[in-house]
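PROTEIN–LIGAND DATA SHEET

This sheet pairs a single protein chain with one bound small molecule, zinc ion, given as SMILES. Inputs appear in the order they were entered. The predicted three-dimensional arrangement of chain and ligand is reported afterwards as a C-alpha cell string under its own label.
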Amino acid sequence: MSMRTAPPMASDELMEDVRRLALIRTHRLAPWMLDGRRLTVPQADAVLAQLWHSPPREDVPVDDSRPAPSVPRERGGEEEVARAMEATRRNPRPMDFFAMISDGKYATPTGHERNDLDFWLVKTRKNGKYEGRRFVDRIIGGHDDVPLDNVHGRLAMEAILAYGAEESQVLYSQEIGTCRFCQRSLTRRVPRYNGQGNDCAADRGLTQEIPPDDWRPEIQDEA
Ligand SMILES: [Zn+2]
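PREDICTION REPORTED AS:
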C-alpha cells in the first residue's frame, strides 16, 4: 500500500490552509446571488450545480415561480465579490446543512496552484456530551489526525461538497488505496481507480470502470 505523506505542518500553517479552502470553493458567487433575495436557495443551488456539472440535489424542488433575476451592471464588482467571499468565509453554513455527507474519509484538492490534496475524516460523536454531533479531523500523513474546530470543520465540509462528496471519497480511496466502503486495502488497478473493492461494488450494484491508460501508470497489476 502506498501512503502519501505530507511534511510536518505547524498549526498556524494548517489553519491558513483550511482557511484557503473557503476561497477555492465555487460557491463564491452564492452570497452575491442570494443578496437581496434575487434567487431562492434552491435556485442558487441549481445554478451552482450547473456550474459544477453535477445534478442538483434532488430533495430540494427548484422554485420556478420566481422570475429570473436581472442584475444591475454595477453589482458583482470585484469589491462586492470580495466582500461576499469574506462573509462566507466568516460564516460557513451550519454543520446540519452537511447531512448528505456521510461519515468517512475524503480527499479534496488543496488549491489551483498546488497539485496537492487535503485529507479529511468526517465523523459523528458516538457518546458523551457531544453525542450525535459531527466533527471533522484533518488527516496528515505520519501524524495524528488534527481535530478541527467548528468553523474550520464546516469549511472542510464545504470543500468536500464543492468537489463532490462521492468524488472526494473516491479520490481518498485512489490516493490511499483503501475501499471507500469497508476500508480494506486495494492493490489491484481497477478497484483502486474506482475506490471500491469488487465485492463491495457487486453488493451495491456498482460497476467497476476501466481506468484510462494515463491514470497512475505506476499502479499496475502483477502479471
Ligand atoms: Zn470494500
